[in-house]
């Protein structure tokens, strides 16, 4: 399974039967509104649950720039999330310093490469909390 637009399409076509479970972790689809275009953009992201919220990491593989989906959320914190067949609106916030260590540990347990990505870049990789708005 590819990670990218083909991943998004297979996930959407199968309600996550294909694409939710990926490389021994779990993936959701995050749809943000483009900060310049206003168009919707859907990105597959590794996630973990934390209470009622969903946690994702804006790593971009340790790139010096934040990923576009994160930049979009900085402009507009409202997004749509799909977890398997469940689609819902969510409000995003970047983990504050008090909550980040616990959430970073949660995410590196599911995807240890996040620690390597952080070593590759000078930027602090954000952890994003997606809180359902139902």
Automatic annotation (TrEMBL):
GO CC term, one of those recorded: plasma membrane
InterPro entries in UniProt: F420H2_quin_Rdtase, Split_barrel_FMN-bd
Reaction it catalyzes: oxidized coenzyme F420-(gamma-L-Glu)(n) + a quinol + H(+) = reduced coenzyme F420-(gamma-L-Glu)(n) + a quinone
Signal sequence residues: none
Annotated GO MF terms: coenzyme F420 binding; oxidoreductase activity
Protein family (similarity comment): Belongs to the F420H(2)-dependent quinone reductase family.
NCBIfam families according to UniProt: hi_GC_TIGR00026
Listed name of the protein: Nitroreductase family deazaflavin-dependent oxidoreductase
Species of provenance: Nonomuraea montanisoli
């Amino acid at each position: 399974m590819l990670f990218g637009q083909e991943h998004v399409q297979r996930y959407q076509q199968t309600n996550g039967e294909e694409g939710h479970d990926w490389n021994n972790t779990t993936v959701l689809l995050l749809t943000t509104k483009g900060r310049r275009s206003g168009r919707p953009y859907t990105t597959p992201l590794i996630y973990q649950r934390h209470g009622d919220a969903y946690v994702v990491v804006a790593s971009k593989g340790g790139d010096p720039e934040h990923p576009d989906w994160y930049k979009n959320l900085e402009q507009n914190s409202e997004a749509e999330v799909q977890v398997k067949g469940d689609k819902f609106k969510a409000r995003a916030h970047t983990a504050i310093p008090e909550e980040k260590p616990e959430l970073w540990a949660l995410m590196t347990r599911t995807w240890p490469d996040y620690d390597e990505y952080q070593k590759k870049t000078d930027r602090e990789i954000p952890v994003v909390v997606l809180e359902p708005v139902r």
